Amino acid sequence: MQFSITVANSSHYQFAEAICTMMAEAAKTRGTGIAQRTPDYIQQKMKEGKAIIAMADNIAVGFCYIESWEGLKYVANSGLIVHPDYRKTGLAKRIKKATFDLSKKKFPNAKLFGITTSMSVMKINSDLGYRPVTFSELTKDENFWKGCMSCTNYDILKRTNKTMCICTGMICDLSNVPEKNIKQNEKKMWEKFTRFITLRKIKIQKKAKQYPKLNKIINNEK
To answer: How far apart are CA 162 and CA 10, in angstroms?
Structure first.
């Protein structure tokens, strides 16, 4: 498939509402949260040159934007979304890479981080140089965590005092991005990441008894 992937600008304002709809529908399908955003918010990101949009036949089929926290100390690539008809085409990886490159250009000394439940996003992040971390290494800015309030699992995050949830935290120091990894190194990074996930799941299982909803989710994963 042919896509046009570019930094969004004012000429893309007309697609903001469709992008918000894609985000909302994706959140419902996953049963977890993508922070709800308004068309005005999406348009503001386009105006600031902090968003990547993917187009196909004059239709918005993918999107991702950059947010910053704590005086530009932390940045996040948020709202990664791909239209259902264009998934499993490699488009998500291309959008993520374009947003990563834009983040490094605009915020070369920041720590790029994210939280996600998607294993495919975790794999993409790992290949880009992210490493898995505990939530304590992420931004403390309350405005970021307020974005989780629309997630169905927010009560877990709240009850654990933001120390753990269903999402996995990942971070990449943009001031020290390693040169492009050869496939062998990417494989080693992914193996290290999966070991982290295994140990994290064991930790969550131990904690789950204290949080009935978390315990239910863990059991349903089996």
So the answer is: 36
- The parent domain of residue 203 ranges over 4-221
- What one-letter code names the amino acid at 172? C
Number of domains in the chain: 1
State pTM to two decimals: 0.78
Q: For residue 45, give the nearest of 59, 62, 65 by alpha carbon.
A: 65
Strands in 51-56's sheet, in edge-to-edge order, are 4-7, 51-56, 59-69, 74-82, 111-116, 168-173, 131-133
Higher local confidence (pLDDT), 22 or 119: 22
How many residues are given for the chain?
222
CATH number for the domain spanning 51: value is 3.40.630.30
Give the count of beta carbons closer than 10 Å to the beta carbon of residue 75: 24
